[in-house]
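Example with several molecule types.
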Amino acid sequence: MRFRILDYLVAIIVALGGAAFVVLIGITGWQVWGRYVLNDTPTWAERLSLLLILIVVLPLAAVGLRERTHLGISFLISLLSPRLQWVVNIINAIILGLFGIAMAGYSMQLVNGTWNRKIPLLGVPQAFQYLPLVLTGVLIAVFMAERLWFLLRHPEKTTDIAE
Amino acid sequence: MGLAILLGCFVLGIVIGLPIAFALGVAALVTAMFEGIPELIVFQRMIAGMNIFSLLAIPFFIFAGELMMRGGIALRLVRFAQALVGQMRGGLGLVNVLSSMLFGGISGSAVADTSALGSVLIPMMREKGYDDDYSVNVTVTSSIAGVMVPPSHNMILYALAAGGGISISSLFLAGIVPGVIMCLCLAVAAWAIAVKRGYKAEPFPGLKAAALAGIAAMPGFMTAVVIIGGVVSGIFTVTESAAIGVIYALIVTSLVYRTLTVRDFWLSVVQSIRTTAMVMVLIGTATSFAYFLALYQVPALILELLLGVSDNPIVLLLLINISLLVLGAFMDMGALILICTPIFLPVVREIGMDPIQFGMLLMMNLGLGLTTPPVGACLFVGCSIAKVPMETVLRTIWPFYFAVFLALMLTTYVPAISLTLPSLFN
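Resulting structure tokens for the full complex:
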């Protein structure tokens, strides 16, 4: 049981990430074409690719937490009683939520500190590198709040996804 | 005290089930707070770790693997391998090993290898009367070829973790012979067990059918040639080669084989970015974690500790192998490459081992970890495809583990196995 609105948010993040990834492939292809065929390397391509990959992967990392697709060791928890599993999952959600808040807060400081510095060859603020991290931190906090809400409303469940 | 907090938080995080990537990040953040180091350094290091151009090859390799799986390249490679070795006793076991070598050489990922080939070969082997435990054992252990045979994105991670100075093309070349030796050892194990269990040989399809299977597989197989050729020849960077490999795989699957639909393409994109997100965030948080390991001079401490135990290179290498095997059984390969490389590389350099050879040793050890419980991604994937309990598989997997271990010992103690090809090409 999840918040429907967050399902839509995840769908939008995946769609935008997919589109950005296709653009990323196109940019790198164009870079190769420019360098070896046109003999005119598009110097912006490398920097833009690096920026795009952050935009693609960081919010999806938060989505991965919601969908529990990140690698971890779950067999130790599975040895516990259902009640203790529920408690550990609540502790996990709190730790991850706090980490998300810290990520958003400290990354915002990085954004503020680098707003007036430009990324070479692109001319956009260096802060753009850290903005996806701010968004990811917020998403992690929201997704973990959703998990907590679910677990607290359903003390009989050990996790927030179908088992 | 700071080091104890760093390691303690990490281990505690893992034990309570935090994802490894986030356990690393949380441990780094708590340590920064304890030490009074500005906390934003943790996130600044994260971005710095991900902001490296050669890392862009990783999503491209993952995407190429997805395209091959959904676009029919994997299936054609299996048919080609079947035409080559299917007529031997226990032929499908050998087909499995050979397919892993061919497919691993393209996708560069053990998990992709298990998932792509397992979904084709495990049902096929079941239909032909092979036991499920045997099918899963062969599929899972031979998938280690995915990290050994180039291109392997784990080798890019290793080059990165080694702090530069190790050529990715040399690593790609170095992986070929150990990968082939490991597959030969596995083929012998697969054959011996097949004979013992009385599995039958497949009928030879005839020279014409074999040649046709080879011709059909060739355009797909050329993806590996395009990627590896581009990197090894020095014409393209690894990222450029990977992007060209993706574009080539797109052309082959959509225009030559005509098996890739728009839906398959989009599913490949989505799966690739989801996998990439896991890998890249792990790289980011492991970079923050490694920053603190360096701050506490952990590599120097480990060097001192190991040299205190013995200064005999044979003993030290055995100790390192055992440590990596144990760690590999509990943790993800990518995280371990990023954490263990800066720790163990100075030790092996001290005893005169070439960093390229150490890279191969690391790949094989941690690749084996992907097939061992409790945290073996390939083992999980193989068991879930065959729908068999892990205990059933583990009861009979030991000859296959022994085969990989034999290849590992050869790679560890015979430098020429890893270093001959790179030295020939350089």
